[in-house]
Structure formats: structure tokens, C-alpha cells
Amino acid sequence: MDTNEPEDDPVKEAPVPRRRAQGLGRDIIIDACLKLAGGSDADALSFRKIGKAIGADPTALYRHFADKDELLLALADRVIAVGMEGYVPGPRWEESLRDLMLRTRASFLRYPQVATLAALRVTRQKGELEFIEAMLAALELAGFERREAALVYRACGDFMLAWTGFSAGLVLLGEQSAQDDNAWVRSYQDVSEQQYPLAVSSVALMAGVQDEENYRFALDLLLGGIAARLGN
């Protein structure tokens, strides 16, 4: 008998199967990303976490998106499209503008990580185009000429996106945002009320204004200014 037989190789653990990239699609990836973006994790949209969520190697994402920027723009456009679902133009231009600027903001705030991106970018895709078309249609109904309608659109769109990006930042701050407001009020305790009577007496009122209340109030001011420009 040959006593020099090789020992059996130890049993190796089989690798955990991953989802085949061919089984993925842009919509599946975007759906998974939106679920991740619905939380308060500022790093929720890392390729590692997205890959784990879809059960695929993160490199599989590159089969469907050229880079992370393309993916994030697609996410932003999907959020706009979700906000536009069910939109019906109102009989008055003011109603349509208000509805568009409230519904799109609300959709973005469900996904704060996406909102912080959208405040700085344009997607150039279907959801954004539908939003722009609806806004311009309302301004045309109001009676604005094309050039002025473009100016008013920019004012309204930038107002909504910038404010919503700011609001999304507050959502991501969570409890820290409330702590900052409390610190604001406490810091004024050391300010001379004789020198700054209005600021000191009003700080608690100012800090107590909630973000959504503030946005709606500012939106009323904006729409009022637009109406005044028309001479209504």
C-alpha cells in the first residue's frame, strides 16, 4: 500500500451567490435606492449599500448607469415624477403654481438625500420636463409673455429647490436641528435687550416658526409678488 497518498483537501465553503447583473434593471435599482434614501442615513446611497440592497456586486450598477452621478440624476427625476402623479391644472394659475410647488417639495422631502442633490442640478429627464411644462402652462394662463414667464419660472423653481434642499438638510440633522434652535434662543439671553430690544424679544417667536410653515408663508409672499407684477 502506498503510504504517501495526498491528504484530502479541506472542504471549502461555497461562495454566497449574488444576483446576476442581467436580472437587474434601471427601475429595480432606482426602487431600491429610494427605499434607502427614505431614511436619515447621510451615506445611504453609497454603491456598497446599494449593492447590498439589490443583492448584487456594486460593480453591477455600472451596467445600467455610467457613474454615480447618472444614477443620482435618475433618482432625482423619479422623485419629481412621483410628485407630479395625480397633478391636474387648477382653473386659476395661482392654484396650479401653489400645487406644483407644494407637491414636488413634499415628494423630495420623503427622500432627503436626493433632495440635497436636486437643489443643485437639473435632470433633463421626463419628470423634470413634465414639471417645467406644467409650470410654464400656468404662467401662460396668467398672461406672461415667454421671456417673463421664463424669469418667473426660474424664480419659482429655484425658490422651491433651494428651500427644499435646505429643509432636507434639517431632516438629516434630526434632533440636532431642534438643539440648534434652542441654542439660538439661549444665546440671546446674554444679548443686551436695551441695545437690541426687538431681536431679544422676538427670538423665541422666530425660532418657534416651523420649516413647513415658513415655506408656505414665503410661498404666499412669492405668489403675491407674481400677481402684483401682473397688476392683479
UniProtKB/TrEMBL annotation:
Residue ranges forming the DNA-binding region read 46-65
Q: What sequence ranges are listed for the domain HTH tetR-type?
A: 23-83
Q: Which UniProt keywords apply?
A: DNA-binding, Repressor, Transcription, Transcription regulation
Q: Return the InterPro entries for the record.
A: Homeodomain-like_sf, HTH-type_TetR-like_transc_reg, HTH_TetR, Repressor_TetR_C, Tet_transcr_reg_TetR, Tet_transcr_reg_TetR-rel_C_sf
- What's a Pfam family in this record? TetR_N
The record's annotation in PANTHER family points to: HTH-TYPE TRANSCRIPTIONAL REGULATOR RUTR, TRANSCRIPTIONAL REGULATORY PROTEIN
Protein name, entry field = AcrR family transcriptional regulator
Q: Which organism is it from?
A: Paeniglutamicibacter sulfureus
